[in-house]
Amino acid sequence: MMFCQKCGSVLVPGRDKDGIILKCKCGYNSRARKNVLITEEVKLGREDKIELVDKKIETLPKTKEECPKCGNNTAYFWTIQTRAADEAETRFFECTKCKNRWRVN
Ligand SMILES: [Zn+2]
Ligand SMILES: [Zn+2]
Question: Do the domain assignments include residue 39?
Answer without folding.
Answer: yes
